[in-house]
Amino acid sequence: MRNISLIIRRVWKSAFMFTALSVLIVSGTKAQDAVEGRKIFKEKCTSCHALDRDLIGPALQPLIPTKSEEFLIKWINNAPAFIASGDKEAVEASKWNPNADMTAFPTLTPDQIKSILAYIKAGEPKKEGEVAAGAGASDEVSSFSIAGIVAVILISIAILVILGRAIKMLERLILKKQGVEIIEEENVSMAAGIGQLFKNKKFVFFFILCLVISLGSFGWMGMWNTGVHTGYQPTQPIKFSHELHAGVNQIDCQYCHAGAFESKNATIPSLNVCMNCHKQVQGRDNHDGNISPEIQKIYNALGYDADNMSYDKSKEKPVEWIRVHNLPDFAYFNHSQHVVVAEEAIRKEKGLKPNEPVCFACHGPVNTMEEIYQYSPLTMKWCINCHKDTQLEVKDNAYYTKVIEAHEKIKKGEKITPALLGGMECGKCHY
Fold first, then answer.
1. 126 in helix, strand or coil?
2. What is the DSSP string of 110-146?
3. What whole-number distance in Å separates Cα of residue 307 and Cα of residue 305?
4. CA-CA to 210 of 20 to 30 Å: which in 71, 225, 292, 326?
5. What is the mean pLDDT of the chain?
6. Is 294 exposed, middle or buried (0-12, 13-18, 19+ CB in 10 A)?
7. Alpha carbons 363 and 43: distance in angstroms, whole number
8. Contact at 8 Å (CB) between 294 and 284?
9. How far is it, in rounded angstroms, from Cα 144 to Cα 33?
10. pLDDT band for position 314 (50/70/90)?
């Protein structure tokens, strides 16, 4: 009988260790498949696909459930090769959109593709109001991980209670067979039962362990998202629709943001640029013959009288735009380096179409945004991953030609100066 008691105690201890380990595993794992999938989807897929409507490619939410996960992994990884292999299902899938070829993404791992599929099935997370400022959508806390921690803790408590009762019952049976008199306990209330449970040192230790792990997980997830502002969409003093200007009217990004192709900063366009069109375009058709209120704000800022077509400089006042994309002061980013020097490399890595500006790689499908918002997380991890994955296009690229020439001179032992490596560029010293 004593052996039976020892075996049960060992089982109890094993169950305790298993449940504690389960909590550690669940809490320690981000389990943010859908969150990671959303990030990858926004970077690589939104130029052609939407979840619930047709774009260049078909709507994905009604389509994904009709195919197996194995098929979708092969299809997303390299659709052209999959079709060329003669697979009947792949050939049939190529008819989803006969006017556009599915871009191959050979750098995506099966786990990353599974994350994308998880995001498509889950859909876009709901936002509080319009867009919650400071919401770290790319690395936000997964509801799955939270639910997993809670579920493991509850199941563990239930297992411990059941095992505790089983041990107690077996001990009573052993004592009865040994002839020891047992005093029957009266039925106790639930509160008293819980009180007795918390007198058990092992249970208290396990409870405190679960509490520490849970609080530590929530704290870690909260700190991980600090300073990440994906989705940030402040209300601007003048409602400027990128969807109307860059989408419907197809105005090139360079027309307003010429600095992005020439210097470190993209620059905020001067209101004089707006006036090139809005001296004539006044939106009167939609406002009962009156000037559009948003266009009138431009006139007021410039002191412009539309009736007399004259300016009053004494009435000029700056428009207080709210910055959307804001990097830390210690992070140096040069727009021209990316959109001019690395344009072809970025286009290839992000799968952009010829008619899409390279700006979409970081700023997302701006031509579909009524109001601009921060599309990418702009974290160091996000930048590093892009720098690790993007393959440079050095052929016929004057910038890299100079670098290669410098390397050849180094091999020959010739003199190399900072000027030869771009040390005379203004941006090297002047931020």
1. coil
2. HHHHHHHHHHHHH-SPP-SSS--TT--GGGPPPHHHH
3. 6
4. 225
5. 80
6. middle
7. 9
8. no
9. 9
10. very high
Task: Report d(CA 49, CA 57) in Å as an integer.
Answer: 5
State the amino acid at position 217 in one-letter form: S
Contact 317, 301 (CB under 8 A): yes
DSSP secondary structure string, 278-335? HTT---GGGTTTSPPHHHHHHHHHHTEETTTTEE-GGG-----PPPSS---TT----H
Given its phi and psi angles, is residue 374 left (phi above 0), alpha (psi -120 to 50 degrees) or beta?
beta
Q: How many angstroms separate the CA atoms of 402 and 70, rounded?
A: 46
- The number of angstroms, rounded, from the C-alpha of 324 to the middle of its chain's C-alpha atoms is 16
* Contact by Cβ (8 Å): 36, 145: no
| Residue whose pair of structure tokens reads 């996960």 in the numeric block | 69
Residue 148 contacts residue 26 (beta carbons within 8 Å): yes
Per-residue confidence at 108, pLDDT binned at 50, 70, 90?
confident
pLDDT tens figures, 18-62: 555 555 554 444 445 788 888 888 778 876 788 887 777 788 888
Q: How far apart are CA 158 and CA 150, in angstroms?
A: 12
Specify the range with the lowest mean pLDDT, choosing from 112-116, 213-217, 239-243: 213-217
Residue with tokens 């027309």: 255
Compute how many other C-beta atoms are within 10 angstroms of the C-beta atom of residue 263: 14
Q: Is 212 exposed, middle or buried (0-12, 13-18, 19+ CB in 10 A)?
A: exposed
110/101 Cα distance (integer angstroms):
21
- Rounded distance between C-alpha atoms, residue 429 and residue 165, angstroms: 73
Q: Decide if 375 contacts 363 (C-beta within 8 A).
A: yes
CA distances to 91, 95, 109, 389 from 83, rounded to whole Å, are 5, 11, 19, 25
> Tens digits of per-residue pLDDT, 246-302?
998 999 999 999 899 988 888 899 999 999 999 999 998 888 889 999 999 999 999
d(CA 349, CA 108): 11
Whole-angstrom Cα distance, residue 203 to residue 200?
5
Q: Say how far apart CA 356 and CA 56 lie, in whole Å.
A: 12
Distances (CA, A) of 251 to 32, 268, 346, 360, 381: 38, 15, 22, 14, 32
| Token pair belonging to 160 | 């411990």
